[in-house]
Amino acid sequence: MTPQGLYCSPGDFYIDPPGAVARAVVTHGHADHARPGHGHALATPETLDTMRHRFGADGVPNGQALPYGESLTIKDVTLRFAPAGHVLGSAQAVLEYDGQRIVVSGDYKRRADPTCTPFEVVTCDVFITEATFGLPVFRHPDASAEIAKVLRARAASPERCVFVGVYALGKAQRVMTLLRQAGYDAPLYIHGALEGLCALYERYGIALGELRAATGASEDELRGQIVLAPPSAARDRWARRLPDPVIAVASGWMGVRARARQRGAELPLTISDHADWDELTRTIRDVQAREIWVTHGREDALIHYAASLGMTARALSLIGREEEGE
Ligand SMILES: [Zn+2]
Ligand SMILES: [Zn+2]
């Protein structure tokens, strides 16, 4: 750990540094991991495209794409990306040096998600894991049961619309594919902030079905429809034309009643792109590491759990990880 973030000295690069550095390895495009202005950024092609979309080409002046599974030697370190199952392009960084393997998980989940490549278990000596939902109370329900609530709310109130608050990267597209899997094939109305990333997902072959701009649609047109937008848009001028919206929010935190209330969610949907307690502990068992380092989230319970399995475990306490896309 350095003040600039997690640093790999034999390779001379940072992993997900919170500020601009000379050489960065970026696990995925969420704002708490991907920053603009690095001298050189190494990431999967999907993550680099996400960063270019968010920061402009100038924000990613020297991006190098490394697809899943391909290896690259950086000084004395061999690096490859393994899928993390979190959002499109999300990766674990697999580092090999001097006969040892360290895996930096980035953010991850183990549940099925057709919008990204599933998490790959990579056995290692040291596993550096997130722990956003690292408490036994966090057990995410089945996402399709949460989506059924949206469809029920829509059917129950044909004069209203259902507003679903979603983060633009990952959650939006996952909710769309969950709706499609549930058989909902009507157009989905979207806020302008989602357009670019939805188009990017479609360019990578993730079918989202028909999307229409919600901005400019009349109140009558939106009756009985599902509208997806960033959660904050529910309180904007933008939302004033929506026909008496049922406010839903899709987030891993919606199982916590106080958070749901704070977000103004009439219909909280616990849909998470992070591992819950069972997924975290299962992963710690699967990777068979000697040491576990916990980067961010609720570290204590997970450290206690890893120690109970005979692993050495410690907290890295990374700062600046206000989760995006939870
Ligand atoms: Zn993330
Ligand atoms: Zn994160």
What would your notes on this structure say?
The protein folds into two domains: 6-137 and 274-315, Metallo-beta-lactamase, Chain A (4-Layer Sandwich), CATH 3.60.15.10; 143-269, Rossmann fold. The longest helix has 14 residues, at 143-156. The mean pLDDT is 95. It is an alpha/beta fold. The protein has a seven-stranded mixed β-sheet, covered by helices on one side. Strands 13-12-14-11-15-16 form a six-stranded parallel β-sheet. Strands 1-2-3-4-5 form a five-stranded mixed β-sheet. It has eight helices and 18 strands. Helices cover 24% and strands 24% of the residues. It binds zinc ion (2 copies). One zinc ion is lined by residues 30, 32-33, 107, 321, 323.
Strand count, sense and closure of the main sheet?
A: 7 strands, mixed
Q: Determine the strand fraction and express it as a percent band.
A: 15-25%
β-strand number: 18
Q: What ligands are attached or bound here? A: zinc ion
The dominant shape is: globular
- String of helices and strands: EEEEHEEEEEEHEHEHEHEEHEHEHE
* Count of individual helical segments: 8
Order of strands, widest sheet: 6-7-8-9-10-17-18
